[in-house]
Specification:
This protein has 311 residues and is mostly helical. The chain folds into 2 domains: 116 residues, no CATH class; 158 residues, Serine Threonine Protein Phosphatase 5, Tetratricopeptide repeat (Alpha Horseshoe), CATH 1.25.40.10. The chain is built from 9 helices and 6 strands. A two-stranded antiparallel ribbon has the order 1-2. Helix 5 packs parallel to helix 7. The longest helix has 67 residues. The chain is rod-shaped, with a radius of gyration of 54 Å. The protein starts with 9 loop residues before the first strand and ends with a helix. InterPro entries: DZR (IPR025874), TPR-like_helical_dom_sf (IPR011990), TPR_2 (IPR013105), TPR_rpt (IPR019734), Ycf3/AcsC/BcsC/TPR_MFPF (IPR051685). It comes from Candidatus Methanofastidiosum methylothiophilum. This is Photosystem I assembly protein Ycf3. Keywords: Membrane, Repeat, TPR repeat, Transmembrane, Transmembrane helix.
Length: 311
C-alpha cells in the first residue's frame, strides 16, 4: 500500500512549537490559531494581515472571536480508489451550523431578552411573595388586636362581676369570676387579692357553722393565694384551736404575729390556747402583749384577770 506524501511541518506562529494543520488552538500556549473573517465569514489564521479570500485587512479589534465552538476543525481523510489514496479535506464543526456574526448577534439579543424577561418574572414572583407576606402579617396583627380588645373587655366584665358577687357574699361565684380574670391576665394583683378575700370569707362562714375542717381548707386556699394574709393565719389557728389542735394553732398565731407584730387578736388568741393548756404564765404574757397594743382591749384585759386568778 502506498503511503501519503511527506506533509509540511507546521509551527505555532506564537510559541514556535510544532502543531498540526487542523488545530484551531495551540495545545502548548493556548493561542488562537484560526477564526472567522468578519467580512466573508471564511476561516482565516489569526496571524494573517489580511484575508486571502476577500482582501479585508485584519485587525485584532476587528476579529470576530468565535463563540460556541464555531471554528471548524480540518481533518484529512484518505479515500482509496483502485488502491491509490486520494487526500481530501473534511471540515468538522462541533455545532452543525456555523454561527455568523449576524446570527451570533441575534442569539445574544434573544438570550439577553429572554434573561431579562426571566429576571422580571422572578422579580414579580418575589414582589408577589412579599406582598402576600405583608397582607398576612397585617391580617395577623389585626386579628391579634381584635383578640386583645375582646380579652380586655372580658377582663373588665369578669372583674366587675367578681366584685359584685363578693359584696353579695356569693364567694363561689366571686372566686370563679376572679379566676377567669387571672387566666387572661395572670399578673392582675387586684383579682388575686379578691380571690384570697373570697376564700377567707368562705372559711369564716364554715367556721361559724362549726365546719372547722372545711374552714381550714378555705383558709389554706387564701394563704396559698397570699402567704402574707395574717387574718387567714389567725382564723386558721382559731379553727385548729376549736378542734383541740393547740400546737398547730400556736404555729398559725405565731405566723400571723410574724407578719403583723401588732396583731392584738392573734396575741389574745395565743393566750387563750396557753390558758386552755394550763400554762397561765405564758397566757398572761400573751394577754399583756395584746393590751400593750391596745390598752382598751377589754377581752384581753378580762382574759388576763382570769389567768391571774389561776396562778
Amino acid at each position: 500500500m502506498a503511503l501519503l506524501g511527506h506533509m509540511e511541518r507546521l509551527l505555532c506562529p506564537y510559541c514556535k512549537k510544532e502543531i498540526d494543520e487542523y488545530m484551531s488552538t495551540c495545545p502548548n500556549c493556548n493561542s488562537k490559531l484560526k477564526t472567522i473573517c468578519k467580512t466573508c465569514s471564511k476561516v482565516i489564521k489569526t496571524n494573517w494581515k489580511e484575508c486571502p479570500n476577500c482582501g479585508q485587512a485584519i485587525f485584532n479589534d476587528s476579529l470576530n472571536p468565535p463563540k460556541y465552538s464555531d471554528v471548524p476543525v480540518e481533518t484529512k481523510t484518505q479515500i482509496y480508489s483502485d488502491n491509490v489514496p486520494v487526500e481530501t479535506k473534511t471540515q468538522i464543526y462541533e455545532d452543525s451550523t456555523i454561527m455568523t456574526n449576524q446570527k451570533i448577534t441575534e442569539y445574544n439579543n434573544e438570550g439577553i431578552g429572554h434573561l431579562t424577561n426571566e429576571i422580571f418574572r422572578s422579580s414579580d414572583k418575589l414582589h408577589s411573595k412579599k406582598f402576600l407576606a405583608s397582607i398576612f402579617a397585617l391580617l395577623l396583627l389585626s386579628s391579634i388586636a381584635v383578640i386583645v380588645l375582646g380579652l380586655r373587655h372580658n377582663v373588665n366584665k369578669y372583674y366587675e362581676e367578681g366584685v359584685s358577687y363578693y359584696n353579695q357574699k356569693n364567694y363561689d361565684a366571686a372566686i370563679s369570676s376572679f379566676e377567669k380574670v387571672i387566666m387572661i391576665t395572670p399578673t392582675n394583683t387586684k383579682a388575686k387579692e379578691y380571690i384570697a378575700y373570697s376564700w377567707y370569707g368562705k372559711g369564716v362562714d364554715f367556721n361559724k357553722q362549726g365546719k372547722y375542717s372545711e374552714a381550714i381548707i378555705c383558709y389554706d386556699k387564701a394563704i396559698e393565694t397570699d402567704p402574707n394574709y395574717a387574718s387567714a393565719w389567725n382564723d386558721k389557728g382559731v379553727a385548729l384551736k376549736n378542734q383541740g389542735k393547740y400546737s398547730e394553732a400556736i404555729i398559725c398565731y405565731d405566723k400571723a404575729i410574724e407578719i403583723n407584730p401588732k396583731y392584738k387578736q392573734a396575741w389574745n388568741n395565743k393566750g387563750i390556747v396557753f390558758f386552755n393548756l394550763g400554762n397561765y404564765s405564758e397566757a398572761i404574757i400573751c394577754y399583756d402583749k395584746a393590751i400593750a397594743i391596745d390598752p382598751n382591749y377589754t377581752e384581753a384585759i378580762r382574759n388576763r384577770d382570769n389567768a391571774l386568778l389561776r396562778l
